[in-house]
Amino acid sequence: MTQDRLTVVVAAFDEAESLPSLHERIATVLDALRADGVDGRMLYVDDGSRDGTWSVLQALAARDPRVALLRLSRNFGKEAALTAGLDQVTEGAALILDADGQDPPELIPRFVERWREGYDDVHGTRTARAGEGLLKRGSAHLFYRVIGRLSRTPIPQDTGDFRLLSPRALAALRELRERHRFMKGLFGWVGFNQVAIPYQRDARLAGNSKFNLWRLWNFALEGITSFSTAPLRLATYLGVATALLAFVYAVWIVLKALFWGDPVAGWPTMMAVILLLGGVQLVALGLIGEYLGRLYMESKQRPLYVVESWRPAGVCSGQSPVEGDGHAHRTAVAGGQGA
Prior knowledge:
The structure is a single chain. The protein is of the alpha/beta class. The protein is built from ten helices and nine strands. It has helices at 19-34, 53-63, 78-87, 108-116, 134-150, 167-173, 183-190, 213-227, 230-259, 267-300; strands spanning 4-12, 38-46, 67-72, 93-98, 121-129, 159-165, 194-201, 305-311, 333-335. It has a nine-stranded mixed β-sheet, with helices on both faces. The two termini are 29 Å apart. Mean pLDDT is 76; it is low at 316-321.
């Protein structure tokens, strides 16, 4: 029977508590898929964790020859960690799974089924979000609808990183090396045949989310400014509207002075106008600075990430497979320029 290669990519940051349970669930699913002609592998990316995540991953790899490990030199962020993992998948398809266990691995067979039907991007669309507060659910709901209206790139609503990407989708994604990465937008930009699988998202297996409200706000700004120039256009419209209002107000002052005379204008009115115009200008400058900062970062052409350790699948625990693994005297592996 022809084997379809599937690599489950999990990016982890301080997830030592949840990884053992998640691994067992993934392994059970891949064991069942083997009879269906799927050669399942697992790739865990340690994004510079500060707890015992790397030790836990090493123990998992020692017990399961299907596990490959990638450790970044520091915390580069989830988007860069996902990119690092997907860069390593050069054969077959890849399925992205969060390390917190909120996206159920038990749905993987449904993703594989749709992939075999010819879809390149099979993504999970959340119909419910267990274990999350009203504010987080509401802000996420609003964000996806706002960016969907502002961006010309199609970004599915209520859809995270839980998805399966075909080999040609992965190859196209590897061509996109921009530094400010909003992966959900990049998945949509690549295009190809896409299909959604509705599911209910579970609560975290353990620990707390690393995304507080401030980080979520910055993440939303990252997504909107990465895939839309609408904020700049809005600043232009706001400036034009303000100028028109100022012109109308100036005409009114002239007419009032000609026909009724005009005593000295009041200080509160003057301060209100100055503060309004100053605020509008600062907002416009801030938006321009946001986009200019992106150009500055892109011009540096730094790697997207740096690899400290790489342990391919199928390596026994007694061997020394990792270049630069945990020792400053060894040579570290730089990455981020391509597969």
